[in-house]
Amino acid sequence: MVNHLRGEIEADLDGRAYTLCLTLGALAELETAFESETLLGVIERFQSGQMRAKDIMAVICAGLKGAGHECTIDDVASMKVEGGIEGYIAIVSKLLNATFTFEDDSTQ
Question: How far apart are CA 74 and CA 37, in angstroms?
């Protein structure tokens, strides 16, 4: 079961349910992969809509690693997702939203 408070999501990859989470280490890996000086640069890359297939694979791989799964970009490249490219984009969007959306519990 995923823990939404930790930014975890569940995604179906190759017909199997996986937990994905962008930990601090996974985010640092994305900064390197995207040759970005800052985390904001990574976020802006996705907000601009300038995603490459390699970017999508990098985010999914980082999310899998952040949740404790061993994988490589090549592993992700061979995984199938329902809905094709739109399915991959939906996973990345959901993962980024889970990572960078904060709920304010102070009012409760």
Answer: 25
